[in-house]
Amino acid sequence: MEENYQQPIKEELLCFEKELETMRNKVSNVKVNIGSSEDKSKLKSAADEMSRFCSDLSEVTNSQDVEIKHLQTSILETFEWTEEARAREVRNKDPKYRRLLKNRSLDPLSQKLVSGVQSKYLYLDQQINEVNRKLDMEWRDHLQQTKGLVSKLNVTNYSQFDLFSLPDII
Predict the structure, then answer these.
(1) Which of 31, 49, 151, 166 is most deeply buried (CB count within 10 A of its CB)?
(2) Is residue 150 within 8 Å of 161, Cβ to Cβ?
């Protein structure tokens, strides 16, 4: 039974080998002339240029991809900041939120900073008040001295008296 299968396979192999031999004979007579050596060198240089162009294009595309990703990140951060600013604006306009903030106590560090600012403010306010009192006293003394000077001169007509010339008299 095995011979029944082997015989047609052998016949097919012989037929295939004959066809293959015929094809080889036909192909051996065919001469293929692709082009001159100049054409070959042009094709090779064009292929090299295309290869360089492809690699340059790949580098540019990769760098632009990195730049695009960076810009996308920047835009997303900007949108995030914008949304946060909008939320803060809405929140800060809310009267309930403001009341809650006023009622809330400060954290220890902030409280310390506020206390320092308040103490400096009070110190400056006291110093300014003291300087004002001192200047007021000196002004009163100056006015009293100028009154005494005017009364010593026995000026009867004050309209003729030039107050701006007093420093020259003193």
Answers:
(1) 166
(2) yes
pLDDT tens digits, one per residue of 79-99: 999 999 999 999 999 999 888
Nearest-Å Rg of the Cα atoms of the chain is 53
Token reading at 34: 């692709």
What the block records as the tokens of 17 is 């080998």
What sections of the chain are H helices per DSSP? Answer: 2-28, 37-93, 95-103, 108-153, 166-169
pLDDT digits over 126-158, tens only? 999 999 999 999 999 999 988 877 666 655 555
- Give the whole-angstrom CA distance, residue 31 versus residue 27: 8
In angstroms, the CA 151 to CA 158 distance is: 11
**Is residue 166 within 8 Å of 149, Cβ to Cβ?**
yes
Nearest to 36 by CA among 44, 24, 28, 27: 44
As a whole number of angstroms, the distance between CA 158 and CA 64 comes to 89
Q: Rounded CA gap, 104 and 91, in Å?
A: 16
Residue in the structure block whose two tokens are 């997303």: 76
**Tokens 């835009």 -> residue:** 75
CB within 8 Å of 40: residues ≥ 6 apart: 34
